[in-house]
Amino acid sequence: MIIKTLVENTSTSEEFNSEHGLCLHIETKKHKLLFDLGASALFVENAKKMNVDLSKVDLVVISHGHYDHGGGLKAFLNVNSKAKIYLNQKAFDKHYANIRGGDKAYIGLDEGLLPNERFIFVDDNIIIDDELELFSSIKGRRLASLGNQDLFMELSSSMVQDDFAHEQNLIIKEDSKTLLVAGCAHNGIVNIIDHLNIANNGSISHVIGGFHLYNRAANTCEDPLLVSQIGEYLKNTDSKYYTCHCTGIEPYKKMKEIMGEKIQYLATGSQLIL
Ligand SMILES: [Fe+2]
Ligand SMILES: [Fe+2]
Question: Which of 121, 164, 201, 270 has the highest local Cβ count within 10 Å?
Answer without folding.
Answer: 164
